Amino acid sequence: MPDYTFITTEEHFLLQDALKKNKHKLTKFALIGLGLLLVAAIIPQLYLYTHNSMGDADDSLLSFKNFWFWVWMICFVIALIFGLIKVTDIRYWAIKKDLTALQKGTLQAPMEAIYLENNDTQTNIMFLLENNKKRLFYWMRGNLDGYRAGQEVAITYARYSRVIISIVRITN
Question: Which of 97, 126, 96 shows the shortest CA–CA distance to 109?
């Protein structure tokens, strides 16, 4: 179990910047979901009410007057938003917890894998820990030039979100 210490003011600002970026992504996904909800709610209505009689359209499962249509639509949008969050690996809630707890950890180990994500705005680094568990850590400030898998590094990271606050190369 690693020892955790308190983060400094500078590290706090770095986490706030990471939180801001994640909040923008989360807002974008919510707007995408709302837009899809509007499109998916309007197009069936246009088709129903132009191709059927008023009574038949009102009785249809795709009618906006049907309760189950709205249950399906809301479930679809919620699943879409959480799917986008999972695919892009948003750390919003974990970073908020880190900003409350104000704890950081340190780790020195060779990097197992390193790759870019989210349009080259985030670098993910996989470490193999002493207990043979692999852990993924996140550098939220773009590409880490010059870092390769197999290099040993020392990192300081936020406890819950595993956002890397600082990284130093130990060996080439």
Answer: 126
5 contact partners, CB below 8 Å, separation of at least 6: 103, 104, 105
Q: What pTM was estimated for this model as a whole?
A: 0.57
Separation CA 119–CA 122 (nearest Å): 8
Condensed to tens digits (0 to 9), the pLDDT of residues 115-158 reads: 777 666 778 888 887 788 888 887 777 777 777 877 888 888 88
Residue 100's SS3 state is: helix
In the 8-state DSSP scheme, what is residue 113? E
Distance (Å) of CA 65 to CA 34, 43, 54, 57, 115: 19, 14, 12, 9, 48
